[in-house]
Structures are given as C-alpha cells and as structure tokens.
Protein 1
Amino acid sequence: MNSWLVIELSDQLEWPVCLEVKIKRDVVEMWLGSRSVAMIDRDALAAWLAEPVGTFERHEVALWMSELGPVVEVHNRVRPALVDPRVLGELRERLVRPPDPDE
C-alpha cells in the first residue's frame, strides 16, 4: 500500500516547487518532478519525526527543526524553507505502522 504526500517549497529562484513524498512499506521516496532526491528507511524517518533532534539528512534532502519550525532543504535545488508543522505531523502519522494482529 503506497501513499503520497506533497510538501510545497520554493526553489533557488523562489519559484514554487513540490517535494512529492511517496510512502511505501519499508521506504520513503522523495521526488522533485521526475528526479528522485532521496530514498529513506521508513522507520528511521518515523523515529526522527517522533523526536526531531539534530539534522536528518539522506541523499539530497535535509530536515531539521529551527526556532521558527521545521525546515526542509534539497541540496542545490531547494533553499532551506520552513514547512507547515501540520504537514510534517501528517507525514509522521502516515509513517506509523499499524499494530501487527499476530503479536
């Protein structure tokens, strides 16, 4: 079961761009248009979103918390940009795995 989430950002020239987040069973893919900019272990991203300390960086994408809120950067493509905390909250909720009925 795959799920998509779109994070609206601005590129280096202040043009609007969409960071598309594809949530798969074990991996989270991040895309700018047709370019894959990150493939992230789903559980590692979920753990960081639950307690966002320091910078979470994979491939071309970096996430961190500033005094003003969450920040996303795509190296050489999207300048550091504040993201609505509700968007990352939604991503965090989607990454939580449902309990295994066999456990």
Protein 2
Amino acid sequence: MRIALTAVLLLAIVPQTVSAAPSYRTRSGEVKGLACNIKTVGYRFVGSAGQSFRYAGNEFTVPATGSIELVSSRKKTTYEIAGGELQFDVWPADEFGIRTVALPKSF
C-alpha cells in the first residue's frame, strides 16, 4: 500500500516539475539564449620526449608519445620553456577549442 501511494504521488508531481522547467528549444530545434564563451578548452603540447615546459605554475614533461594534453587555465595566456615565455594565441584552435602547441626545440 505504501509503495503504491508513493508511486501515485510521484506520478502526480513529476509531470508538473518537468513542464515547469524552462524551455530553450525553439520549434526548429535550435537552442536559443545559451552560449559558452570559452574560446580555448585545452592545449595539446607536442614536442620531443623528455622536453619540459611550465604552464599555470606547474612543470610538465612530454612523454614518449610526443604529446601531452592539458585543460586550459582561465587566466593563463602564456607558457614557459627554457626560461622564456611564449603566447598561446599564435596557435589556432580546432573545432573543439583545443590549441596544438608545437614546443620549440631550442629557444
């Protein structure tokens, strides 16, 4: 009896809460009013295995595969290698917001 009563109450509440949720879809199926303003989601650093660089206060070393992927930090627009600081904005972002950064062999 208790389970049946709970089921009846859920069936009465759920449709109302679902229909009360804001709808962002138009008749054409497009989402309106929602936007993600993040331009760069992450970076793929490509270099020689064992090559080190600094990003967002941390030091990273390129593994044997030749690349390492990192999530972008909101406030960091540069990376450091061999004591020099380089900008990210010279590298294009792909359709997913990932920038592939070729680490220089010498700096």
Protein 3
Amino acid sequence: MGLSNKKEEQLKRMPYIDTKIEKSRDGRYVIHKTTITHIRPVAYYQAVLDGEARGNPESGLEGDDQAEA
C-alpha cells in the first residue's frame, strides 16, 4: 500500500533534516549537529519580509503604516 498523492506532496514541502553525531578530536565530547534545510522560492521570503516591514512598528522604516497609529 503506497502513499496517497496528497501525502506525497505534503512530504515534499517539509524541510530536510540531517543529523550528524561524532566524537571530538580528543575523544572527550560528543558533537551532535542538526541541519534543517528549507527550500522556498525567493518570492516567498520577499513577501514575508515585505509584510514584516509594513506591519512592524519597531522596524524603524519610513512610511510604516502602523507606526503612526
């Protein structure tokens, strides 16, 4: 029984998580590194940044609509 198309699309949108565990050079410590990779179009992040710039009164940007309210 395979995954449904909807579930496959959902899994494709999830971030890639990579983990690496190793000992330090002197052998006294365990080093655990986790990398989370999100792949998104630039337009997505530009929309997020533009939204924060307009809605964040602490941004210090001129023309901030909510800073005057």
